[in-house]
Specification:
The two termini are 25 Å apart. Helix content is 47%, strand content 16%. It is α/β, with parallel strands linked by helices. The strands form 2 sheets. It has a 6-stranded antiparallel beta sheet with strand order 4-3-6-1-2-5, with no helix packed on it. Strands 10-9-8-7-11-12 form a 6-stranded parallel beta sheet, sandwiched between helices. It is built from 11 helices and 12 strands. The chain folds into 3 domains: 203 residues, Four Helix Bundle (Hemerythrin (Met), subunit A), CATH 1.20.120; 91 residues, Beta Barrel (Elongation Factor Tu (Ef-tu), domain 3); 134 residues, Nucleotide-binding domain of ferredoxin-NADP reductase (FNR) module (Rossmann fold), CATH 3.40.50.80.
Length: 443
């Protein structure tokens, strides 16, 4: 991360922390109620912090490019997930501390007889439990992505107004214009973000569609979609970035999926995505026909050599379908005539499933690149590296000059593979700041 992004990232984190704590700050600055027990005030503080964190979740998930730029989209989504869990515990602490303070509060759990304010609060907590539970257990329970996203959005959108109404109806903590202004400000912010993300931005995507030019089969049960902008100039991107693809539906449908832009960043008239058949949506990619309309939202991501223009040498380590951002990088380097030295460690389970194998061989003639294949289950008579990429293989091909400052490593593949290779890279002498990874954990 360069200095500008570090400063910008620090500013964003400061603003986030300030907005989370703002309701408590206003609470402390406002009129005090000495008759209220300390535990009650702590309970309310936890509830306020949790609610403000939940409100800010709408911003961290809105894919605002200026917010993602300093960190990378995968880091922002990871932050979104962790803050959602933290907000859950903050909000849950609010009623639990009330029950500890006075067991008479337990009667509020009877939602049918409780007063409206309590009904709204309990309802908001129930919806929050649903949001967190579905998010954490979606993959284990094999809940379809589109189903999860739809209900995730509905629950979150209903939950926040219920919680805000819970605060306003009581009145004890909105009894001054300043306190009221804080929560009204959050309400306006949420409404603005929802209007932008749910209405204005989908309309923008609708006005800038892409047309499928060709769907081509690749090794490893992968399909490449070639698309052209229809009636507009498309968008510029950096090699290694990704976009969200919507096919067969409109951008209003919440059915988009993230895939790497695998084409060269130097070719503006065509965009390609290479997609492995791994599920319900990806299994249908091969059925797309030339001329069909699709929608692309992008570009996103910081996994790009263009963010490190002073790099002298590149170590590229894809695993399986993790080759897609690496192929975009190699194609872009070829089109630019970039002759910086490259070591490509391409890891796969089977030799016959090595996607883009023939094109990589062709690129060896154009680029200053050495390709090292690491095959987990190699064919009979295999002469290359086998098993998993480890310290021995790295040391065999990377001498001391490849571990100096000015060498950047780009790693992309399955999570277990990347975790193991990251440790191996550090053990052979790479600094942590030299290793850049891209994880497919956005949905």
């Amino acid at each position: 991360m360069n200095t500008k992004n570090k400063i910008l990232g620090g500013i964003y984190l400061f603003i986030y922390a300030f907005l989370v704590l703002l309701p408590i700050i206003i609470l402390l600055l406002g009129p005090t109620m000495p008759t209220r027990p300390t535990l009650l005030e702590i309970s309310v503080s936890f509830g306020f912090s949790g609610l403000s964190m939940m409100a800010l979740q709408f911003i961290s998930s809105a894919r605002f490019k200026f917010l993602n730029r300093p960190y990378g989209t995968d880091i922002v989504y990871h932050f979104h997930r962790q803050m959602g869990i933290a907000a859950f515990f903050f909000v849950l602490a609010h009623p639990l501390l009330l029950f500890i303070l006075d067991t008479r509060y337990l009667r509020l759990l009877n939602i049918f007889q409780a007063e409206l304010r309590s009904q709204l609060g309990i309802g908001a907590v129930i919806l929050l439990i649903g949001v967190v539970w579905m998010s954490e257990w979606r993959q284990k329970l094999k809940i379809p992505y589109w189903f999860w996203k739809f209900w995730h959005g509905i629950f979150a959108t209903v939950m926040i107004p219920m919680a805000l109404a819970h605060i306003f109806i009581g009145g004890s903590y909105t009894n001054t214009p300043l306190k009221q202004a804080v929560w009204i400000g959050y309400s306006v912010m949420l409404t603005t973000v929802l209007i932008y993300t749910r209405i204005l931005y989908p309309i923008r995507l609708m006005r800038n569609p892409f047309l499928v030019k060709e769907v081509k089969g690749e090794r490893g049960n992968v399909w490449t979609i070639k698309m052209q902008p229809a009636g507009h100039s498309g968008f510029e991107f950096q090699p290694g970035q990704f976009g969200w693809l919507t096919a067969w539906r409109t951008p209003f449908s919440d059915s988009e999926h993230p895939f790497t832009l695998v084409s060269s960043a130097e070719k503006k008239d065509e965009v390609q995505m290479s997609i492995k058949n791994l599920g319900r949506f990806t299994s249908r990619i091969q059925t797309l026909k030339a001329g069909e309309k699709v929608f692309l939202d992008g570009p996103y991501g910081n996994f790009s050599i263009d963010r490190y223009p002073d790099t002298k040498k590149l170590v590229l380590i894809p695993g399986g379908i993790g080759i897609t951002p690496i192929m975009s990088t190699l194609r872009t380097m070829a089109d630019r005539g970039d002759q910086r030295p490259v070591k490509l460690f391409y890891c796969n389970i089977l030799w016959d499933d090595v996607t883009f194998r023939e094109e990589v061989a062709a690129l060896e003639q154009e680029l200053n690149i050495e390709v090292i294949y690491v095959i987990e289950r190699p064919p009979e008579g295999w002469q290359g590296e086998s098993g998993f990429l480890n310290t021995q293989i790295l040391d065999k091909y990377l001498d001391a000059s490849w571990k100096e400052s000015g060498v950047e490593v780009f790693l992309c593949g399955p999570a277990p593979m990347m975790a193991a290779v990251e440790k191996a890279l550090l053990r052979v002498g790479f600094a942590e700041k030299q290793v850049h990874s891209e994880r497919f954990a956005l949905v």
